Predict the 3D structure of the following.
Amino acid sequence: MAEQYVDQLDIKIALLVKNKITLDEVVRHQRQFGGHIGSLLNNKDLSSKDPFDLRALNKNSRKKLEHYQEMFFLLQTQPHYLARLFRRFREQGLPEKESKRTELLMMGMFGFAQKRREEYYLLKLMAGCIKEEADASTSLQDYCRGNFFWTKIFMAYSKSPRDRKFMKEIFGPVVHENIVDNQELDLESDPLQIYRAAINNEELTTGQLSTRSHDVTREQAIRDPETRDLFVAHLQDLRDIADHAFNLLEELLTRMPYGVRYIMQQQCVLLEQRFTHEDPHVLLQTCGQWLWKNYLSPVLMQPEVWAVIDRSLTPPQKRNLGEVSKVIGQVFAGRHFGGENVYLQPLNSWLTESIERVDNLLLTLINVRDAEEQFDIDEFNDLYSTTKPTLYMKMADIFTIHHLVADHVDLLCPDKDDALRETIKEVGSARTNENEMMGVGSQEITLQLNPKFLSIQGKKYQSSV
């Protein structure tokens, strides 16, 4: 009730700014809150279901907001609009600050996927983006090189509590048992660095200069017996820790959040449809590399940021974790170590087995049911639902998105009869609307999204809802 009071007071102040009510009415509203609780409950203004209904400002504002409700419904439920916009972002190359701001706006448009309906449509958007970018790519290599805006949306989506819980289950034991709790662990694979560290340890222990030469090549260093033994031990530890991670991933795979698995599945299907001449195994590995780069690797490399561990890692521990990440990443890439990592080549026989292991893991991962079945939603849910979908947004954010859509309307709506183009025309100029409603620009309002336009078998259908 206190929140309703504050919200209603904000509205009255906005009305005051617009000269629609007197100052006495605002003061009277404030005094009412100090009375008996019964008077608060009987207050008709406070009992409004939508205390932030700024559409009451005037008839023109009400009409504008009705069109905004139609606009956001179309943007949410028709993924091709934003998919085209995101492709343009990639082509233009958004500055980091603007990219982050736009990412937050887009996530806000889908309620940060906190509800079933919004998560469903956000996943549909990302699937639509994959198709848009795949169709725009001349080859699989071209697609793989793309720095897609939709992956930023995915990474924001995958920071949910359920994803953090899953990551902690997988990487928690790996990092704790092998990295944090093993203070003596050293995964250095460069023989020259191992050789120099061995000499340093010898001199610290004996207090005398080592008889071994400090100026040697890597080939000479690996022939040193102690260095060779340490080198072999380091690679064995590296292999065992990576095995531990794969064991946990196989064991807990079915707990991976549905959204991640769905995006992987859609990526595999859409790439197969676009690049029919490519080996399906190569396409699967391409999706595996994407999963590693955008979902698994960021967490493993910064476990303290993702709450996998509750402490910061020391520089040696970070180096060890970097070596583990390099090996696991090589498996997901489906490639053996080459000349750039010549001293990791002894792991190549193990890599062959692990690559096959990950291929089987990925096949299991993408075996998920359709999103419609998972979320119990279809494209007409909003039409026959007894309650309209709601969206909470600041007016300033509404105007920003309006500007974005209006600036790219020809890209988003090549068809002159497009429903979104019609809605943008009806809602008018973003700048004019912003000036008219500037008194509430920082406030968050509730939009009751209107399914005015739905598409049935390619024909526009106007809802009577």
